[in-house]
Amino acid sequence: MIRALYTAASGMNAQQLNLDTIANNLANSSTNGFQQRRVQFTDLLYQNDIVPGSAATQQTTVAAGLQIGLGVRPGSTEIIQTQGDLATTGNPLDVAIMGAGFFQILLPSGQTGYTRDGSFHMDAQGNVVTANGNALQPAIAIPADATNISIGSDGTVSVTVPGQTQASKVGTIQTAMFANSGGLNSVGNNVYLPTTASGEAIVGSPGGTEGLGTLQQSTLEQSNVSVVDQFVEMIVAQRSYESNSRVIKAADEMLQQLNQLSQ
Questions:
Q1: Backbone angles phi, psi at 197, to 5 degrees
Q2: At a CB cut-off of 8 Å and minimum separation 6, what does 109 contact?
């Protein structure tokens, strides 16, 4: 009975973390470029009363054995890397990635961060930055007198200034991808950092031979969170939590009966 108590408690703890993850997904359902997470569970160690394949006699072996599971634990939170819905904004500095890839930004620490959020702005010097003031990498500066900003699908940024009939190129937006983007470290503010699990960034031009997606101007990628699916997952997590709590209650009642027999 004591084993059942701890096993069910591990299930309740796991579902609590699952609910925390679902809550974070729902909280970011309106966050540009947010990619939802899903908890992956793994079972705990097994108590081997009879090991499968052990000798039953000199000529026979145990076919199935007797193993008793000791519960569950959260193994990882997997990033679901599907394309979010696209919303047309009309803002020339809003850019969405159609396919794989991340924008590169310079963080205050000097590190290069990676994001799917393409809601860019201009700072006082005309540099293209994020809402938090982190500069796009490679750096791109827009002239103060620019009357039109054009961003091509390949990342080419061109502007039109008074007195010129043709647009002039001011820079190119390069994007990056990773061999295992699920191994990126989320640090908040829609920013990811590379890890040994993700591998080094593969940088190139959007739509190039590296497999990077193309860019679409005046468009933002919304969160890929499906609110309906998350509500379903929330109900499943709640019912699983209740089931484990009932196991604890049943084990407690059985222990109570044993205690009464000993009186």
A1: -75, -35
A2: none
- Pinpoint the alpha helices (H) of the chain: 2-27, 227-261
Spell out the alpha helix ranges (H) of 202-226: none
Token representation of residue 104 = 């590169």
What is the token pair recorded at 121? 């702005």
Backbone angles phi, psi at 160, to 5 degrees: -115, 130
126 Cβ contact partners less than 8 Å away, ≥ 6 residues apart: 141, 142, 143, 144
> Long-range pairs for 124-129 at CB < 8 Å and ≥24 separation?
128/93, 128/157
126: left (phi over 0), alpha (psi -120 to 50) or beta: left
Instruction: Enumerate the domain spans of the chain.
Output: 2-41+74-81+225-261, 86-221
Q: Is the peptide bond before 138 cis (omega within 30 degrees of 0)?
A: yes
Q: Record the tokens describing residue 245, joined without a space.
A: 């709590």
Kindly tell me the burial class for residue 14, based on how many C-beta atoms sit within 10 Å of its own C-beta (0-12, 13-18, 19 or more).
buried
Query: The tokens 């969405």 sit on which residue?
Result: 96
Enter the pTM of the model.
0.85
| SS3 at position 259 | helix
**What are the Cα distances from residue 182, in Å, to 61, 211, 240?**
43, 17, 27
CA distance 254 to 236: 27
What is the mean pLDDT, run by run of 10 residues, along the chain of 263 residues?
86 95 96 94 84 75 80 90 93 95 95 96 94 94 91 94 86 94 91 94 89 95 96 96 93 84 66
